[in-house]
Amino acid sequence: MGVIEHPPIIRLPGVPDHVTYTWLVMIVLIGLAVAARGRLSLVPRGVQNFLEVILEQFIAMIDDVIGHEGRRYLPLIATLGLFILVGNLLGLVPGMNGPTTNLNTTAACALVVFFAYHYIGIKQQGAVTYLKHFMGPVPALAPLMVPIELISHLARPLSLTLRLFGNMTGGHILLAIIFFLMGLDGLIGWALSGSAAGAIVGGIGGIVMIAFTVGFLYPLKILVSFLQAFIFVMLTMLYIGAAIEHADEHGGHGAAAPHH
Amino acid sequence: MRRSLIVAGIAVLGVPGVAFAQTATAATGSWVGPFSVLVAGFAMAFAAGLCALGQGKAIASAVDAMARQPGAAARIQTAMIIGLALIESLAIYVLVVAMILLFVQPIK
Asked: Which pLDDT belongs to residue B10?
């Protein structure tokens, strides 16, 4: 990708790019939080209002999926969601590098979720009760259920990692190729080269490509950014909800954990 | 008829690979490099097509359910999006494998 992709504009020596831009996302989020915290008021205005609207969306989703007692996990869930969302959107800014287009960042998020929901499950139910979930409903089926459950649980961080990474990187490569095709090495460069055919074909083609990018690809990428952050958060909530759901509780709230 | 078509298709797919492989063997000493590029493209094509079929089925029944019960549209939509993400992750696995074949090239 180094051939067709311009390196990001901010590069710290000795620091990988995705770490630099992870720090940038952290600065943005912490800055927003500090700006809202400085002038807290009972009637929210400005930044505080903006953040409250976002967090109320998270709380509504948590109430919907985990239930009322899931609100104590709001810091974990909302932090992950906001970090992934801002990271995804940062990848769309030209000259920036989205931290979520790197496998290490997404693997870190997924591993945090993996250990967090096991910790929450063990803390809420006790280790013995929680581990009994892995044996399935009938004790006779335990030799069959334990490997299945183990593989299913181990596949969760893998699929969380690869889904976010693949979606973001696929879109990133697509944008890089489109920009390469229409940039100074491509159609626009041809239009500026001075030849008559280049001016006609490259000019029209460049305008069509710019309209396609601005009108279709960028809105699509913004939609995908929000959707992937939503899906990551939603799956996190499903996993936590399944971990704290009691085995003997019938007709529990929320959706069951997906087995995949 | 169909079997002969399949055989012809495999032959058409295979012959350039063999020819390519022999020139590549002469040039760089391995046929895996150019073949992995071919495989990456075809794998992504198959994965995208089949993933589109599956997602189309899911969306069709979700829209059907939403049209029957507009009151439950929000919950159906949430379930549909989660399901689409789980279906899509299979195609994403193929994308990751294709990118590994193209950019990392573990077997040269």
From this structure: 52
